[in-house]
Specification:
Structural class: alpha+beta
Order of helices and strands: EHHEEEHEHEE
Strand content: 35-45%
Number of domains: 1
Bound molecules: coenzyme A
CATH class: Alpha Beta
Number of strands: 7
CATH architecture: 3-Layer(aba) Sandwich
Number of helices: 4
Distance between the termini: 55 Å
Shape: globular
C-alpha cells in the first residue's frame, strides 16, 4: 500500500494580479465567510502597496499574509517598522505549520527591506501563535472587526 504523502508547502511572494486574486479569495473564505468580517473592512487601501505572500500546497493556494511598510514607527519605537496582517490559512490546513512558514517569510522579507520591527493587531485567539514567534503584547485589548484584538510587537534588529 502506498504511503499517503502530504504536499510540500511552498511560500511565494505574489507577483501578479492573478495571484493577488488568489490571496483575496482566501481572505474572503477565512475572514468574510468564516469570521463574518464585513467586506468593507477586510479590503483596504494597503492591499495596493503591501507585499502579499501565498502558501501553495500541491498547486493550490492554502494560506496568505501581507507586509505593509509603515510610514512611522509605533509609539515608543524608532526606525523603520512594518505591519504584518491578513494572515489566513484554510481550516483544513491549520496546525501543520503553514501559518508559521508564512510569518517567517514575511519577517525575512521585512529584514531584506531593513525593517527594524514588526507590529500587528492579533486576534486574541491567535495571541499564543504570535507569542510563540517572539511577539510581545502591548497595551489593552480593543475591538476590531467585531473581535477582541491586542497590539503585538517584535523587534527584528539587534538594537
Ligand atoms: C492564525 C493562523 C493563521 C495560524 O495558521 P496555522 O497554519 O494554523 O499556524 P501553525 O500551524 O504554524 O501554528 C498554529 C498552531 O498549531 C501548532 N502546531 C503546529 N504544528 C502542529 C502539529 N503538527 N500538530 C499540532 N499542533 C501544531 C502550533 O504550535 C500553533 O499552536 P498555537 O496556535 O496554540 O500557538 C490560522 O489559525 C488562521 O488562519 N486562523 C484564522 C484567521 C486568523 O485568526 N488570522 C489571524 C488574525 S490575527
Amino acid at each position: 500500500m502506498a504511503a499517503e504523502t502530504t504536499p510540500e508547502i511552498i511560500i511565494t511572494p505574489v507577483k501578479n494580479e492573478g495571484e493577488l486574486m488568489q490571496a483575496l479569495a482566501l481572505r474572503e473564505i477565512v475572514f468574510i465567510e468564516e469570521q463574518s468580517v464585513p467586506e468593507s473592512m477586510e479590503r483596504d487601501e494597503d492591499d495596493a502597496t503591501a507585499l502579499h505572500v501565498l502558501a501553495m500546497a500541491g498547486g493550490h493556494a492554502v494560506g496568505t499574509g501581507r507586509l505593509v511598510v509603515l510610514s512611522a514607527p509605533p509609539a515608543g519605537e524608532v526606525g523603520k517598522w512594518g505591519r504584518i496582517g491578513r494572515m489566513a490559512v484554510l481550516q483544513a490546513h491549520r496546525r501543520s505549520g503553514v501559518g508559521s512558514k508564512l510569518l517567517a517569510t514575511l519577517e525575512a522579507e521585512a529584514r531584506k527591506r531593513n525593517i527594524d520591527g514588526i507590529m500587528l493587531h492579533a486576534q486574541l485567539s491567535a495571541m499564543d501563535f504570535y507569542k510563540r514567534h517572539g511577539y510581545v503584547p502591548n497595551g489593552a485589548v480593543f475591538e476590531e472587526a467585531g473581535m477582541p484584538h491586542l497590539e503585538m510587537k517584535r523587534r527584528l534588529s539587534a538594537n
